[in-house]
Design goal:
35% helix; binds sodium ion; Alpha-Beta Plaits; binds 1,4-dihydronicotinamide adenine dinucleotide; 6-stranded parallel β-sheet; Asp/hSer_DH_NAD-bd; Dihydrodipicolinate Reductase, domain 2; Rossmann fold; elongated; 11-stranded mixed β-sheet; binds the ligand N[C@@H](CC=O)C(=O)O; 438 residues; 14 helices; sodium; ACT_dom; alpha/beta
């Protein structure tokens, strides 16, 4: 260990989009980092899959290795940055690093959302830190505010755009009419997308982030499997156009809510990720390209908004380095930061119990009484209608209904009912609506 001479050895695992920028910053800012930490922070190894791969950064000779397991076990490694991603070997390497006495910084939301508690318990046992600000919303400081700044308040809701790739795609579809494939390719070229972009497009990445946000916000253990997840692969150009007609945009939202327990029982949490229409006047509507934004509502503070670059190698490396400075300082001070806080152990509600609103576009027969019949279907499921408008005539007749808030179960039963009705030719678009006052 280098603690005797106060120099801290850093191992970086993975040298892709994020890892290469972490290595660059460690080298370029060595002097400032040493001053801020109070000791030199020295890059002592970089684990890669292939030694001869092309890289965005020049790694000093002798530092590259393909043996990540041996690297994390070395005596001169005090701090480990895991930016490989995925579940294994990342989990095994982090556990081994902690067992060998290193503090860990990771950007790995997939692993944290699947098995965070195992990592937190290992860190607790080892008396070391595990920090992960980069795992949610890239460069935006959001986990530290939830864990530290709001530790004395009661967070009731977290609502955000937390996936840069899908925001980039939806933004391009809305503003330039770009096709889905071209927009995705551009996001991949810019280093925003996950190694397998299905994780972005199908909402897995946002769901992992929602689980991490909900765990911290509500002091409970929420895993990716607790999150209702829908991606953007079924969002059509017609949905985007329909949103535009309503002066709205389609965004992939992550929504984490504290719901009062029934009959005065314990509060529970509801966590969901899905595309939704929001009015263009809503602040989230102006979040463009790969930017992210997160709203936090809490009892005492009210509404807070966090905004910034949510993806990309360099912004994400900024969050990694911020954590690295903190865990390095903690090591020098012989202390560690706050560990997991899951004392509230709140139950997680199913999607059917979540309260939301629907926008439904229905192709109908153009004859007398159709509007009343459709309205009756909503009423039968106790769903109140906020607005309804008719477009087109004859074979082109379409009703566009926006409901008031109801449970998702009531709303989906209404849509299923509409699909069985003779006068309904097709339900062409169903999308949740957020950000509109009741
Ligand atoms: N790219 C982004 O905008 C963001 C990424 N993250 C997270 O950061 C992590 C890294 O993401 P990226 O850099 O984008 O991925 P990437 O795919 O560009 O880089 C991962 C690197 O790890 C290497 N690797 C794989 N297995 C390895 C092994 N056994 N030993 C050593 N190296 C190995 C790969 O060859 C690749 O170069 C992931 O957990 C990701 O979810 C978090 C926030 C934003
Ligand atoms: N693939 C992710 C990267 C950051 O977490 C995204 O697109 O947001
Ligand atoms: Na962040």
């Amino acid at each position: 260990m280098k603690e005797s001479d106060k120099s801290l050895g850093v191992a970086v695992l993975g040298c892709g989009s994020v890892g290469s920028q972490v290595v660059r910053l460690l080298q370029e800012q060595a002097g400032d980092l040493a001053a801020r930490v109070g000791a030199p922070v020295e890059l002592v190894g970089v684990a890669v899959r292939r030694l001869d791969a092309a890289r965005e950064v020049e790694v000093p000779e002798g530092l590259l290795t393909t043996d990540a397991a041996a690297l994390v076990a070395r005596d001169d490694v005090d701090l480990v940055v895991e930016v490989i991603g995925g579940i294994e070997p990342a989990r095994g390497l982090i556990l081994s690093a902690l067992e060998h006495g290193a503090s860990v910084v990771t950007a790995n939301k997939a692993l944290l959302a699947e098995d965070g508690p195992t990592l937190f318990e290992a860190a607790e046992k080892a008396g070391r830190d595990i920090y992960y600000e980069a795992a949610v919303a890239g460069a935006i400081p959001i986990l530290r505010p939830l864990r530290e700044s709001l530790a004395g308040d009661t967070v009731t809701r977290v609502l955000g755009i937390v996936n840069g790739t899908t925001n980039f795609i939806l933004d391009k579809m809305d503003t330039s009419g770009a096709g889905f494939g071209d927009a995705l390719q551009e996001a991949q070229d810019l280093g925003y997308a996950e190694a397998d972009p299905t994780a972005d497009v199908e909402g897995f990445d946002a769901a992992a982030k929602a689980a991490i946000l909900a765990s911290l916000a509500f002091h409970s253990r929420v895993t990716a499997s607790d999150v209702h997840r829908e991606g953007i692969s079924e969002v059509t150009a017609a949905d985007v156009a329909s949103a535009r007609d309503m002066d709205s945009v389609v965004k992939l939202l992550a929504i984490c809510e504290l719901r009062p327990g029934a009959d005065g029982g314990e509060d529970a949490v509801a966590v969901r990720v899905h595309p939704a229409m929001i009015p263009r006047s809503h602040p989230l509507a102006s979040v463009r390209e790969a930017y992210n934004a997160v709203f936090v509502e809490s009892e005492a503070a009210g509404q807070l908004m966090f905004y910034g670059p949510g993806a990309g190698g360099s912004p994400t490396a900024s969050a990694v380095l911020g954590d690295l400075v903190t865990v390095a300082r903690n090591r020098l001070a012989g202390t560690r930061g706050a560990g997991e806080s899951a004392y509230a152990a709140r139950a997680v509600l199913s999607m059917g119990e979540s309260r939301t609103r629907y926008h439904v576009a229905i192709d109908v027969d153009d004859r007398a009484g159709v509007l009343a019949t459709v309205a009756l279907a909503f009423a039968e499921h106790d769903v109140s209608i906020q607005t309804v408008r008719q477009e087109g005539r004859g074979d082109d007749a379409q009703l566009v209904v926006v409901s008031h808030e109801a449970t998702d179960a009531q709303l989906s039963a209404t849509v299923a009912h509409l699909r069985t009705m003779d006068i309904v030719r097709d339900v062409t678009s169903v999308m949740r609506v957020e950000g509109v006052a009741e």
